[in-house]
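Deliverable D2.4 — example input (structure tokens):
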């Protein structure tokens, strides 16, 4: 019988997405199926999720799940095998998965995601309708408490894996919520859920997990240092023998310029001329001048972590060197305002679309020349992988997964024909200015630029290799627990 895995995640593409976590949760089950591993994914029943479900079956009911009635629904959406926690008191709200329409976090997030995790642990213990997981895989702080509930409950022998998608988001709450978590007294302490006098959901998951994974090898190394360990480097170093850096992949069926129905014209690495129609469509959408100047794109959360303040300050420099910029994203309101102001100041050279638009993100990768990612830290990053796939050359800071996936266009790499992008360090104004200038110079050599595009498009960032690593890790844990 094939190994069965319960994945617990707060979002999953194509049902609900705020970032790369959703892409991973949506793509990894299909990749693991090729290794004989079945995955069912437990997700919250947000309105956007429930609206996309077809036929459902109620497999469990709760009269008082943290004070709320709830039902666990089994459903399939495409190839995704889902368990959906339908708890209207927790998830039927206007706004995003984690906050209201103004972006403010829901005050009861501790309860909402404790409920999700509690249900994950219940499934690990009892299964549902004849199905029981051999292993549980929890994603980020919103699901990390699953491992803690399992550790301090009857399901403690079931192997537990926690994946860190971004260590900066830890799910920290006051000590007063402990009484409401339904955990035994021994769970309070340094070896449990306590974290600097409060509660740390991610910390609780990491100290309870049988294995910890991050989404790139370099990020696994970086978070062991005080500068990027976000206060958890001591714990992570103490569990270094359980730490695995496994690079994210992308769904190459969804992200395929030769078959993408969301772009103006399809193309391949052998026929890059098809990108021209996408470029024109991109210029039209963002009201950019129609010319041959290099178009830099940004598809990102507009935050300090992503280095977007550096970009906002570098826009005049970019335009002055002859570049154009198209921005798609949302985040910190001052940064949103800075990009909108730049679009007004540089009409025809800068365009900004505040919000997120999945079809537009595909068009931008297909029509842009270079995707700019000056992150101060980046666990993996997926947009640079989409850029490589689409011939949109990544211009990135040398951190985390960006360092693992982009080969800098230095003289040796260009000469060997293996360069796939522009890599700069550190992520500061001077280095960013230099990276932009170097990109514009490289773009001026049409043959060299196309060689770099083709090298990127030949790169294999599918889930093939990464899924094999996950499968090997999962099997070793299950065999060890037998």
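Example output (designed residues):
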């Amino acid at each position: 019988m094939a190994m069965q895995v319960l994945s617990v995640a707060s979002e999953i593409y194509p049902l609900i997405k705020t970032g790369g976590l959703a892409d991973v949760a949506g793509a990894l089950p299909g990749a693991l199926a090729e290794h004989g591993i079945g995955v069912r994914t437990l997700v919250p029943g947000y309105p956007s999720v429930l609206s996309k479900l077809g036929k459902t079956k109620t497999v469990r009911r709760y009269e008082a799940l943290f004070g709320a009635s709830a039902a666990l629904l089994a459903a399939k959406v495409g190839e995704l095998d889902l368990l959906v926690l339908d708890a209207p008191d927790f998830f039927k709200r206007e706004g995003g998965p984690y906050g209201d329409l103004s972006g403010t976090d829901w005050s009861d997030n501790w309860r909402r995601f404790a409920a999700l995790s509690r249900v994950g642990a219940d499934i690990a213990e009892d299964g549902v309708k004849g199905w029981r997981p051999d292993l549980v895989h929890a994603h980020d702080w919103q699901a990390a408490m699953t491992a803690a509930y399992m550790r301090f409950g009857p399901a403690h022998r079931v192997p537990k894996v926690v994946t860190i998608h971004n260590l900066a988001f830890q799910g920290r709450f006051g000590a007063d919520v402990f009484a409401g978590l339904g955990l035994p007294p021994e769970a309070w302490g340094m070896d449990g859920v306590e974290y600097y006098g409060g509660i740390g959901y991610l910390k609780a998951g990491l100290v309870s997990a049988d294995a910890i994974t991050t989404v790139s090898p370099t990020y696994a190394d970086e978070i062991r240092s005080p500068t990027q360990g976000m206060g958890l480097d001591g714990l992570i170093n103490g569990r270094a023998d359980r730490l695995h850096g496994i690079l994210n992949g992308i769904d190459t069926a969804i992200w395929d310029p030769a078959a993408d129905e969301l772009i103006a014209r399809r193309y391949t690495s052998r026929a890059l001329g098809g990108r021209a129609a996408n470029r024109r469509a991109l210029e039209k959408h963002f009201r950019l001048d129609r010319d041959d100047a290099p178009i830099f794109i940004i598809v990102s959360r507009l935050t300090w972590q992503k280095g977007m303040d550096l970009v906002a300050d570098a826009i005049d420099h970019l335009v002055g060197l002859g570049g154009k910029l198209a921005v798609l994203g949302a985040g910190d309101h001052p940064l949103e305002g800075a990009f909108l102001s730049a679009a007004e100041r540089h009409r025809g050279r800068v365009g900004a679309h505040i919000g997120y638009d999945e079809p537009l993100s595909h068009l931008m990768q297909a029509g842009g020349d270079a995707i700019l990612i000056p992150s101060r830290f980046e666990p993996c990053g997926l947009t640079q992988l989409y850029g490589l796939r689409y011939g949109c050359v990544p211009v990135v800071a040398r951190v985390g997964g960006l360092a693992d996936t982009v080969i800098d266009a230095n003289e040796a790499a260009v000469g060997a024909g293996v360069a796939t992008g522009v890599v700069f360090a550190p992520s500061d104004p001077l280095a960013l200015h230099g990276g932009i200038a170097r990109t514009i110079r490289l773009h001026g050599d049409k043959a060299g630029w196309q060689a770099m595009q083709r090298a990127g498009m030949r790169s294999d960032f599918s889930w093939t290799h990464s899924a094999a690593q996950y499968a090997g890790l999962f099997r070793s844990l299950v065999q060890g627990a037998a």
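The two ends are 15 Å apart (CA to CA).
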